[in-house]
């Protein structure tokens, strides 16, 4: 969504987790691995000096009180293991319609953040007649209340599309939006959210419109890839060539990372660990009559590898068909599958 330069190295970040991010759709059971990764990510951001607010889904309707209680207990258990205090804040539209209550809520957020507490916000779903309707809108309003620098809307697709990519193969990704109003003629947003949630892409666009109007950079992103980028420790580095950079950073159809595009490997890691992906860009610099080549190291992103550092060192530069010949087995045709790639590099090669 709308981009801006960070106001400072230390930012206020609001992260909205949808129901599909924290609950298994078929069983309604909590996804403990996702919750744990999010908690670790928040702790990492706090360690860097950032202030973090979570807007999290609870349960819907009559089960809201029970659902929120269980969810907060899990959050408390996870955060307490890392000595991070949290506070639950339940909001309704009525709380914000009244000016006095709105200012009280703003002051509460300010005091909690100043104390190093992570506020966990949810709508009071049991009070149906004064609901926001979805946590996307709630997250945008919360972001405005805390004067956030960034709002992350976690979803189950990797970015905004012109239509639902699951049902329309011709749907095109929209990486950056400068004018949300202009999207009305570009994007079909009739698709609903998950079975468990109350929101969909349309609610995320409304939330993004609210937040960006307040000067808040808003990012709609796949929760898994966000965790790969910010929640996982990198165990090594993979250097790739220019062709691989072009392939894995394509706007329309990103490719997996194959061994053929890998130049070298640093570090010791095993399969399924996170690694940083980098590219050495050669820049020519002239000094009077002398022309020198300068190497600039560019971070392309992060990913979860299918092979260990030892295995990748043996198969780097090789075709996928040759992996089994070299290793004696081939667990995967690619080193990092595109679903496990989180790209940060904007391709302008």
Automatic annotation (TrEMBL):
Residues 236-336 form the PUA domain. GO terms for cellular component: cytosol. One of its GO terms (biological process) is alpha-amino acid biosynthetic process. It holds the Pfam family PUA. SMART domains: PUA. It comes from the Eukaryota. Coiled coil: none annotated. GO terms for molecular function: ATP binding; glutamate 5-kinase activity; RNA binding. Keywords: Amino-acid biosynthesis, ATP-binding, Cytoplasm, Kinase, Nucleotide-binding, Proline biosynthesis, Transferase. The keyword Transmembrane helix does not apply. The keyword Nucleotide-binding applies. This is 9767_t:CDS:1.
């Amino acid at each position: 969504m709308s981009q801006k330069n960070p106001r400072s190295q230390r930012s206020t970040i609001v992260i909205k987790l949808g129901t599909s991010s924290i609950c298994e759709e078929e069983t309604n059971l909590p996804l403990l691995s996702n919750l744990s990764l999010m908690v670790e990510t928040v702790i990492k951001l706090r360690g860097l000096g950032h202030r973090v607010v979570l807007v999290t889904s609870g349960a819907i309707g009559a089960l809201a009180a029970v659902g929120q209680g269980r969810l907060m207990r899990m959050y408390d258990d996870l955060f307490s293991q890392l000595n991070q205090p949290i506070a639950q804040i339940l909001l309704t539209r009525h709380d914000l319609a009244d000016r006095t209550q709105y200012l009280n809520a703003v002051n509460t957020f300010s005091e909690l953040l100043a104390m190093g507490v992570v506020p966990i916000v949810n709508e009071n779903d049991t009070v149906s007649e004064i609901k926001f309707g979805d946590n996307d809108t709630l997250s945008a309003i919360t972001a405005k209340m805390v004067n956030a620098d960034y709002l992350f809307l976690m979803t189950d697709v990797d970015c905004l599309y012109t239509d639902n990519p699951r049902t329309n193969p011709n749907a095109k990704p929209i990486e950056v939006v400068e004018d949300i109003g202009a999207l009305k003629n570009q994007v079909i947003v009739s698709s609903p959210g998950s079975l468990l949630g109350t929101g969909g892409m349309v609610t995320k666009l409304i939330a993004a419109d609210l937040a960006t109007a307040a000067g808040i950079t808003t990012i709609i992103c796949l929760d898994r890839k966000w965790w790969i980028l910010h929640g996982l420790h990198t165990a090594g580095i993979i250097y790739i060539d220019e062709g691989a950079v072009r392939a894995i950073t394509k706007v329309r159809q990103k490719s997996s990372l194959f061994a053929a595009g890998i130049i070298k490997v640093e570090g010791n890691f095993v399969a399924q660990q996170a690694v940083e992906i980098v590219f050495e860009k050669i820049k020519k610099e002239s000094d009077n009559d002398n022309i020198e080549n300068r190497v600039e190291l560019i971070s392309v992103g992060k990913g979860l590898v299918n092979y260990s550092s030892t295995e990748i060192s043996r198969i780097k530069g090789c075709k996928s068909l040759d992996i089994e010949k070299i290793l004696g087995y081939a667990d995967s045709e690619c080193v990092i599958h595109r679903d496990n790639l989180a790209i940060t590099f904007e391709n302008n090669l």
